[in-house]
């Protein structure tokens, strides 16, 4: 999702409604990126606990 960090502007011809959708899409992509980081962190913690429990 490299495009999520870029400035995205809808053409004026399409109207304000389209820009609202584009902004919502970027916000959703940002939320997904944060969720992915959170899940990765949780997975790392659980894996670490499992390894410590086996030793």
- Portion of residues in helices? over 70%
Shape type: rod-shaped
Distance between the termini: 39 Å
Count every beta strand, where a strand is a DSSP E run of 2 or more residues: 0
Q: Could you say which structural class the secondary elements and strand pairing correspond to?
A: mainly alpha
Ranges where pLDDT stays below 50 over 5 or more residues in a row are none
- Number of separate helices: 1
What fraction of the residues are assigned to beta strands by DSSP?
under 5%
For the largest beta-sheet, the strand count, sense and barrel status come to:
none
Write the element-wise H/E pattern from the N-terminal end onward: H
Average residue pLDDT: 83
Rg estimate, integer Å:
19 Å
Explain what the structure shows.
The chain has 55 residues and is an all-alpha fold. Helices cover 71% and strands 0% of the residues. The termini are far apart. The mean pLDDT is 83.
């Amino acid at each position: 999702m490299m495009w999520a960090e870029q400035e995205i502007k809808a053409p004026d011809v399409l109207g304000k409604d389209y820009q609202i959708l584009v902004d919502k899409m970027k916000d959703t992509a940002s939320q997904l990126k944060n969720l992915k980081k959170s899940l990765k962190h949780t997975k790392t913690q659980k894996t670490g606990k499992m390894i410590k429990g086996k030793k």
